Amino acid sequence: MTSDPGILYVVATPIGNLADMTPRAIEVLKSVALVAAEDTRHSARLTQHFGISTPLMALHDHNERDRSAALVSRLSAGESIALISDAGTPLISDPGYALVHAVRGAGLQVVPVPGACAFVAALSAAGLPTDRFVFEGFLPAKTQGRQSRLTELKDEARTLIFYEAPHRLLDCLEDMRTVLGEGREVVLARELTKTFETIRALPLEAMCAWVREDTNQQRGECVLLVRGVEAEAEALPAEARRVMDILLEEMSTSAAAKLGARLTGEKKNRLYDYALAKEGK
Ligand code: SAM
User: Fold this and answer.
1) Residue 125 has pLDDT above 90, yes or no
2) Are 23 and 109 found together in one domain?
3) Pocket test for ligand 1, best of 113, 219, 221 (most atoms within 8 A of CB)
4) Which of 156, 177, 239, 260 has its CA 20 to 30 A from that of 115?
5) Domain count, the chain
6) pLDDT in tens, 7-51
7) Do both 16 and 91 map to the same domain?
8) Which protein residue has the closest C-alpha to ligand 1 atom 2?
């Protein structure tokens, strides 16, 4: 008698806060024959924490292609397997693509077990347009490559999302300022779900200055989100919005637009439109 083939579960794990582990993720990790993990030592801490004793196997960028065939055989023989990465959703700037491709190519079932993902968390709280966006993952590590990639994205209308390593954050922001312009709005979403979670929106010039001066901002994990050009053209500069937000708490829309125009140098009508949009009119 041949058994039914197993299932490959692609399981999201927390991006910092263990309370974000889903009950379904725990249940699946306990139920499978094997957990393929990017870094078994790192993941052992997670599985121990949740009382999961399923064996772990290393599956990373360097061995993924080689190991995929063996894992497909185990699935075909009826064993179910879970794939996890160090944090968040596997395959999102993480290993797993070769395995999922091979498993689906073999006609076997792949089931996602959704949960945390750093860029989705960042986008959901950044205050930038979310209807259309581009996830770019990591930019090239060196200035020349980074600037040329940013040049290709300069006129992109959709919200741009990047992952960045903390030690490259300032260089990356400075390249963004050079290529995209000092006034382009950027959101730094740092240490999401953790104690020092910070989400701040500033024009690139001000963001560079803040991150340079406050070196704490150069620590921990971060996502950068950049306003797309069309949205940028429609948006008031951050300082004008700040002034208007304060004025609107104190006076009528038309009075705020009038005084705001004197304070910021922006056109009264633009400020008036901003106030109406903010009030949802
Ligand atoms: N698979 C993960 C996901 O679903 O988000 C991403 C893995 S990628 C190797 C790691 C990058 O994700 C970090 O360099 C950082 O840019 C981002 N990241 C992960 N955790 C984060 C957090 N708690 N706060 C902000 N960014 C985070």
Assistant:
1) yes
2) yes
3) 221
4) 156
5) 3
6) 999 999 999 999 999 999 999 999 999 999 999 999 999 999 999
7) yes
8) 88
